[in-house]
Amino acid sequence: MNKTRWKDIPLARKVILAVGSIMTMMLAINVILYGQVNKTIKRMDTVYSSNVNLTELSDSLKTVQEDLYAYLSVKSSDSLENYYRSEQNYLTLLDKLSDQISSNPSKLLERNIKSMSETYVRLTGDAVTAKRSRNVEKYKELYDRSQQLYGYINSYINELNNQQFRNNSSSYQTLREMLEYLEISSLVLMSIMMGLGAMMLFGITKGMIEPLTNLAETANLVGQGNFNVKMPRTDALDEVGIVTRAFNTMVESLEEYIIRTKESMEKEQQMMEKELLMKNHLKEAQLKYLQSQINPHFLFNSLNAGAQLAMMEDAEKTCIFVEKMADFFRYNVKKGLEDASLEEELTAVDNYIYILNVRFAGDIHFTKVVDARLMDCRVPSMILQPIVENAVNHGIRNIDWEGKILLEITGTEDMIHIRIKDNGKGMSRERICEVLSGNSGEGEEQSDSTGVGMNNVISRLELYYNQKNLVDISSQGKNMGTEVTLRLPRTGGKK
User: Fold this and answer.
1) pLDDT per position as a tens digit, 163-199
2) May I ask the CATH class of domain 292-489?
3) How far apart are CA 408 and CA 324, in angstroms?
4) Phi and psi, residue 33, nearest 5°
């Protein structure tokens, strides 16, 4: 074995060097800690500067009072200048005090001092102004009030000074004793640890080298994926023996874990596939259920209209009417479980409008504007007729003006834009929100309804395209009409 490289140095020497480095680092850390302790003590010494600041504040207040008295007595420009200078200095020192509301006694005293000082400065300023105006009675009164307030402020400053001195003295003494104890304890402890570490190192190095070398070789084999290797069994109770037994247990557990992980991943994959299949079946079932809803009342009423028409007119018109009826319901039943082309959807709408116009004597004014290039696009079946039906039943029926419905289909490279607009009763914002959220409460018991309402259309579109927000409804308000807009992807949806 090459002994010249670091990795070839005997393990005992490596351990000695490593532990020695650690102990050196610990000692260095202790020295740094000791230095930080001294810095902390020095910072604590500066706590007393708060008392110095308060003393300076008191002296500045005294100077303001003396300069005020001098000006009021002499009224010279020098004395006035001295007053303004001392006042400014006092205000500067005053800014160092806290004005926050607090339950702390010191903070409360600071707030009171600052508040009274502001009043005091205002009184002294008013006294100077009165003196300059030669209002003797006023400036004497203001001076007396400021003199009284001066005494109160001084008493508060002295109280705060004494309070801070007591607090600082107690805290300083306690912390100093603690830090001194910490310094001594750290040095003693580090010395003991270094001594014991050196003694223990020489005692355990010899017995560690051979088993640790074997452990390293075995670990290398395990790292290469060989889990059939194990360390020789030992009954030793020292650290090497514990590590050896723990290593063997780890190898066994790792092998079992890998096997369990593979089995778990396989089971999870199977469960995910089953779950996906179930979701697809559920979605398909939902789609089929929603599409299967049709109100028989519409069929009965329409057939009744056809019977009446047969009695009033010749057979030709009756034949056309019955054919339109047959086509409409044939499409509804045939396409109930399928998608359809836009052309088929428009044909269903045309048949529906024809049927209604026969029943209601042509009162339904319906207009189409369609891009012929979109006719082959696939969409869910029975989505346009229910919206047109909604426009008839809830929009233009029973209005006092001529009702009109416009169906417009345009498209882009990626989207189909369908707009169904009426000039009827309009919708409130609250009603629009109810419809779009699926809480419209639309009944399917209307005698003139196919039973496929807006809730149904919105749900089927979301299921088909696996997207939300495909439908938008807008209205300017009462009697301002309603516009329903569909934004459908040209690609996608159920395959």
Assistant:
1) 777 776 666 667 667 667 667 777 776 777 677 666 7
2) alpha beta
3) 22
4) -60, -40
